[in-house]
Amino acid sequence: MKSYPYSELTRRIIDAGYEVHRELGPGFPGQIHHNALKVALGERDSKYRSEVGFDVHFHDHLVGQHRLDLVVEEAIYVELKAVEGAWPEVFKAQVVSGLAASGLPVGLLIDFGNGSCEVKRLINPKLYRQLKSTDELTRFIGDFVREGNIHDRSRQFGQTR
After folding, report:
1. Coil, helix or strand for 82?
2. Better-scored residue on pLDDT, 66 or 17
3. Structural domain for 131, as ranges
4. Which of 41, 100, 112, 121 is most buried, most CB within 10 Å of its CB?
5. Integer angstrom CA distances of residue 59 from 55, 56, 99
6. CATH number, domain containing residue 67
7. Contact between 104 and 77 (Cβ < 8 Å)
8. How many Å apart are CA 90 and CA 79, to the nearest integer?
9. Domain annotation covers residue 153
10. Residue 93 lies in a domain
């Protein structure tokens, strides 16, 4: 099995997503799946923040704010969807933009809208381009999180667990 940065943590989140989908199925509004995933993560003793906002700057000017559905263990951005059919590319672009705005290293896109739960794992492209190997990327991400870089860029909204 191939190792990715945060493999164990992303596996725990994905397992929680599968559990939510298995028990609730598709068809509910996204907020119901969002709330159920928060319950499932809490049952796995995973710390998360919900509806986390990050300022977006262009040429040193604040141009808006981007909200992330969930940030788990201050390392993983989780974007949730409940859309039937194939994903439009804009969903992946939304996760990549969220990773860039937040500085978080890894993102998960989880869609509860189909007969099976669909998941896509994405790595912050800025980090990916800078580093040459998975081991180097994993070490860099660990240092990045330990140094507290994520807290400096976020504003908290909504529920924290």
Report:
1. coil
2. 17
3. 7-148
4. 112
5. 13, 10, 18
6. 3.40.1350
7. yes
8. 12
9. no
10. yes
